[in-house]
Amino acid sequence: MALKSDKNLKLYYSIREVAEMFDVNESLLRYWEKEFPIIAPKKAGGNIRQYTKEDIENIRLVYHLVKEKKMTLAGARQRLKQNKESIRDTAEIIDRLRRIKEDLLSMRKELDYLT
């Protein structure tokens, strides 16, 4: 997944922060909010969206299905209805494998530099 930030201390995140985490436009997040009922950020005064960690996790699932697996929105909605837990597990495994790959490539560069 394209999650670029590991902010664990905040309760709420702005739409800008969430968009940056996934490297997507804010307008895409607003569109997904209309298309996927599982994405439902709290709205503060002036209609300012406040995303929780659960909202971000749900966006991560949609991102995985739509951007990484190239599913249609209708297909992603159907898949989420069928087996949300399985999708979450698969997305987490893919994230972990990507981080391991990045770590290994970094180690390889350091070793190449030493030799």
UniProtKB/TrEMBL annotation:
Entry-linked InterPro entries: DNA-bd_dom_put_sf, MerR-type_HTH_dom, MerR_fam
Listed PROSITE patterns: HTH_MERR_2
Pfam families: MerR_1
Protein name per the record: MerR family transcriptional regulator
This protein's UniProt keywords: DNA-binding
Residue ranges constituting the HTH merR-type domain according to the UniProt record: 12-82
GO molecular function, one term: DNA-binding transcription factor activity
